[in-house]
Amino acid sequence: DETEFRNFIVWLEDQKIRHYKIEDRGNLRNIHSDDWPKSFEKYMKDVNCPFKIQERQETVDWLLGLAVRLEYGDNAEKYKDSTPDGAKNTDNTAKNAEPLINLDVNNPDFKAGVMALANLLQIQRHDDYLVMLKERLTQDAIAKAAQSKEGLPVALEKHILGFDTGDAVLNEAAQILRLLHIEELRELQTKINEAIVAVQAIIADPKTDHRLGKVGR
Prior knowledge:
By secondary structure, this protein is mostly helical. The protein has 10 helices and 2 strands; from the N terminus they run ααααααααααββ. 57% of the residues lie in helices and 2% in strands. A two-stranded antiparallel ribbon has the order 1-2. The relative contact order is 0.05.
């Protein structure tokens, strides 16, 4: 609902984000104005939101993340020792410390995240997202990744990613994945070129018989 969405944005700014001074929030608070979308677009730029005004779900998620970070920053002492309700009164603290131990691969959000990451990194997609992950985690792939390779160090800051996740750590991880993907493509292209050269070597060396007026073996 458009009205609820606008009220939600105003509430986030008033109660949690507080990027504007109170006297500067008038245009954003005027949710019934025809110019509200322009005010909201300016607000997104002012808080450095990386998404466009049309990307509602992504924008909401990003603004909520910003609000949570600011809330924690204002009350770090209060929240630093907090634990999730599900993690209380458990004996296996090491298990709870593992962030992926309770990952639900059937969760629609997880599936959407996998597909979104594949799109961002321009990796070939598969109808079954679990198959796409499995192909990246086969024994051969793991063994190949474990092999040490000598090479020159890469300065990530010199490679343009082409998109912004809104998080510096994720941006760096995406750059690394993109470079690894490009390396795989180059290896494939090298093998293709070798195959072409091998075929040309076979078909480009015929024996010529001038007496017969034809070329052949």
